[in-house]
Amino acid sequence: MSQLQRWWQALIHGLIRRMKMPLEVFVGLRYTRAKRRNHFISFITMISMLGITLGVMALIVVLSVMNGFENELRGRILGMVSHVTVSSFRGPLQEWQDLRAETLEHAEVIGAAPYTEAEAMISNLSSVSGALIRGIDPEFETSVSEIHENMKFGELGDLVAGEYGIILGSGLANTLDVVPGDRVTMVTPQATSSPLGFLPRLRRFKVVGIFEIGVYEYDRSSAIIHHQDASRLFRLDGGVSGLRLKLEDLDLAPQVRQELKQSIGLEYWVSDWTLRHSNYFKAVRTEKTVMFIILSLIVAVAAFNIVSTLVMVVTDKQADIAILRTLGMSPLSIRWVFMVQGTLSGLIGTLRGLVSGIVVASHIDVIVPALEQFFQTQFLPRGVYPITDLPSEMKQTDVIKIALLSFGLSIVATLYPALRASKTRPAEALSYE
After folding, report:
1. Do 405 and 55 touch, CB atoms closer than 8 A?
2. Measuring CA to CA, which residue among 311, 391, 294, 303 is closest to residue 353?
3. Which of 311, 272, 286 is nearest to 109 (CA)?
4. Following DSSP, what letter does each residue of 220-258 receive, concatenated?
5. Burial letters for 68-104: b for 16+ Cβ neighbours within 10 Å, e otherwise?
6. DSSP category for residue 136
7. pLDDT per residue over 400-416, tens digit each?
8. Helix H or strand E encompassing 291
9. Sequence ranges of the domains in the chain
């Protein structure tokens, strides 16, 4: 038995000694403290506790990292898309200033900005790519998105109405092989009638900036221009596609959507991020649930090692059980003796796992770089993964759920050996003593 294991057991024994201790608990604890004649049993006990420790630690660390990834990706996605979107059923919004002022009266709305969305082709020499064009107002855009915080070159203020500047996503800029200062040609789906027939509308834009959100979908296909330039280019007669709203609490988006429907009228279409991206976040939650189930099997295997340990202990203690029975201890009390012994092993393993898991999850930002430096490698290479650091967010509910799972499996694992011990017949057990 290791020194650490003796320390844990001494701590628990000390706590129980201060309380009124039933006979079953007293005998069960004496069995755990006594030096076993069979060293193999001690080895199996140590392995089962170590397995529980590793399983609990792995569950806490993995779920914390997955929580961190989910929040990081959600922050990046919602930094590009809006929490709530308001548009008109009748076409472009013309008097969007009045609607913007009305939506800002809602207590949860902390920002509102006009936007225009359309699809177009962007070309540079022989390079051509489709793009989702977004027209914005640089003055209001910073209140609803985080694009300005993810600019690699330039800034949103470089978009000036009438100068036809454009800001490209980093992936789109790489595809077109352009840098700030270059010019690109935008081809819109709208055609212009001429004596020669219908010709596509073309407009030259100057690249004034490049942004990188860290989500391939947006970096590869998004381009930003001034909303007045977009209105002229896509023939919106000075209007915009709608308003983008930012909320104080994005989890309240469905509730705010319903309230805005009632306050601004039925002529407007109100949507929120849970409708547009619900499948993605549902997939992330499903993956987290599957990982929890898979890693729980580690704890389950380790916990059920307690079964083999207690079966061997019951066999080794046949004479002791028979003597206790002849002294008047009931089968139920015998059952509790061995349940206490097995539960203590599970409790020690669970507590060790909780402590080590919390420590590792809390310092994952220090541990991973140290391991990368030691092994001279990078676990998440830049350019392959959008997130190169392992974010971690430990939730109290996850820790409690893992602790209850581990401790509960440990208790279940003691039932069969304890039942077998309670069925020991004193006459048969002492016949060969």
Report:
1. no
2. 303
3. 272
4. HHEEEEEHHHHHHHTT-TT-BSEEEEEESSGGGHHHHHH
5. bbbebbbebbbbbebbbbbbbeeebbeebeebbebbe
6. E
7. 999 999 888 888 888 88
8. helix 278-316
9. 3-74+281-430, 83-274
Q: Are strands 151-153 and 109-124 parallel, antiparallel or unpaired?
A: unpaired
DSSP of 51-84: HHHHHHHHHHHHHHHHHHHHHHHHHHHHHHS-SE
Percent of the chain with pLDDT over 70: 82
Residue with tokens 């069979």: 38
Beta-strand relationship, 222-226 and 165-169: antiparallel
Please report the pLDDT score of residue 428 as a whole number: 60
Q: If pLDDT is split at 50, 70 and 90, which confidence band does 335 have?
A: confident
| 270, 48 contact by CB (below 8 A) | no
What are the helix and strand counts (H, E) for the chain? 17, 10
Task: Give residue 122's pLDDT.
Answer: 92
CA distance 331 to 422: 4
Q: What is the pTM of this model?
A: 0.69
Are the CB atoms for 84 and 412 separated by under 8 Å?
no
Contact 308, 44 (CB under 8 A): yes
Q: State the pLDDT at residue 355.
A: 92
> How many Å apart are CA 424 and CA 317, to the nearest integer?
10
Q: How many CB atoms lie within 10 A of CB 285?
A: 11
pLDDT for 283-334, tens place per residue? 777 888 888 888 888 888 877 777 877 777 777 677 776 777 676 677 777 7
Greater confidence (169 vs 196) lies with 169
Instruction: Supply angle C-alpha 265, 269, 274, rounded to 5.
Output: 120
For residue 130, what are its two tokens? 């489709």
Q: Is the Cβ–Cβ distance between 164 and 102 less than 8 Å?
A: no
pLDDT at res. 331: 74
- DSSP strand E in 227-360: where? 242-247, 268-272
Give the pLDDT score at 273: 84
Please report the sign of the dihedral spanned by the C-alpha atoms of residue 149, residue 151, residue 157, residue 163: negative
Q: Alpha-carbon distance 364 to 377, whole Å?
A: 16
**DSSP strand pairing (222-226 vs 84-88):** unpaired
